[in-house]
């Protein structure tokens, strides 16, 4: 029994290391390639670590002005989506949590069902409708669509969070003379902050990383997000692989920062549905 | 008791509607209405001259079903989906079990590893495609070492027609496993620990308690993971599109590519809607089977 225990420890450690290497390897590859000078790109056998480290690939990215514009577009689209989702989802989450709503369970189930469907089926209607409404190739169309992607799960998540905040909190605030909306903003929202942060991350992440709708509904460098610009680089990077990986890493950095500082909220939000 | 009476009093009025309506109207306009359009449109054909839909009944469906390429894309999509779902299930379960293991020396280390394992999640499909494209490149890292290991001249991960499907499946597995890992992990962590403790005291082995306690309790959640993953993968478009555009020689030509190329890019919006309806029906059948299998049985058992 005892011998079995002590053998399992190192074996378990080995398993963990193998898993980590498999899942993190592509990330490290991109990270180190972005620090490799051009003359080392075609050294055989290929190596992960550069012999001479350099930041030149990152410097080269800033000469590609169109990619800075793509970056800005992504910021606008993701920021707009986050703001819209936070406002709509906190109102709806609060309403579902506190009030009687006609056919509440059916409406909530229907909202969740919407989450399952979208994707490629919506391409045709989105393309046609955006043409007809003259919002094709604008920030607005992507903000609306991306919000539609995240809103269902956001409403659910915030409803669950508001359920954990006792109603007496805003009732005492309202007794002191504040309106219900004020109570929601100043009393309830701070208490449900982990939920709001989780929704904000999900909305930002979804909009920042969305590619398919951007491909079909935008086609100008002044509107298209970074994912669109990145995809255009596929297959042309034999020569400047290090610069391409630098752009790739730059596209991930904002999310990486959010992730490092806030990921425990997100993990809690996602796992909240199935456990703790 | 007091809260309930307060709730009941609040229940008489419709004040809650003001909070809920903005989202409901938003979703109705932005998701539900566009989604519903594909059903009437699938019975139409798009006329570029009049710039409008013209009713043609089931003609677009007949045209669609007569296309051998369409059935080819459906077959590829099923192969692709089954491989991805099976792979995700294995990866998600193994990783969740590892993270949930009692062998971690400290909780901090465990949480750190969990965070690192979530990394692929934050990469966009474009970023993932670029990285894996570089790795798969004929003179790239993976190709070079694989070909030297196997002693062949070159491994065309994205150019060999019998290999390319597995190559893109592998990238999909890497990019999308974290969500399913978290779902399974959440389930494992919420299992009642007393049951496992009691089983251990009674001398039940780890494997037995896994088969007789863990699996039955996790059945519903696993079903949900399969359903969500199956639907997401069945309508997958972007990552594989960036990497292969369906090629080489249609080896990775998914149904979504058929919709995009044959429907949208040729401005055949009725045709594209018909494909959309077909995909929606497949998803509907899957959901029905899921409910039948996971809720029908449960209701019987109780």
Structural write-up:
The complex is a heterodimer of chains A (276) and B (302). Chain A has 276 residues and is an all-alpha fold. Chain A has a domain at 64-232: Orthogonal Bundle (MetI-like fold), CATH 1.10.3720.10. Chain A is built from 12 helices and no strands. Chain A has helices spanning 2-33, 56-61, 65-98, 104-116, 123-132, 139-163, 168-175, 180-191, 193-209, 212-217, 226-231, 241-272. In chain A, helix 3 runs parallel beside helix 6 (139-163) and helix 9 (193-209) runs antiparallel to helix 12 (241-272). The longest helix of chain A has 34 residues, at 65-98. Chain A is globular and about 70 Å long. With 302 residues, chain B is mainly alpha-helical. Chain B has one domain: MetI-like fold. Helices cover 73% and strands 3% of the residues of chain B. Chain B has 14 helices and 2 strands, in the order H-H-E-E-H-H-H-H-H-H-H-H-H-H-H-H. A two-stranded antiparallel sheet of chain B has the order 1-2. The longest helix of chain B has 33 residues, at 269-301. In chain B, 37% of the residues are buried. Residues 1-5 of chain B have low confidence and may be disordered.
Q: CATH superfamily name of chain B? A: MetI-like
Q: What does the average pLDDT of chain A come to?
A: 86
Measured by DSSP, the beta-strand proportion of chain B falls in under 5%
Main beta-sheet strand count, sense and barrel state of chain B: 2 strands, antiparallel
* Oligomeric category: heterodimer
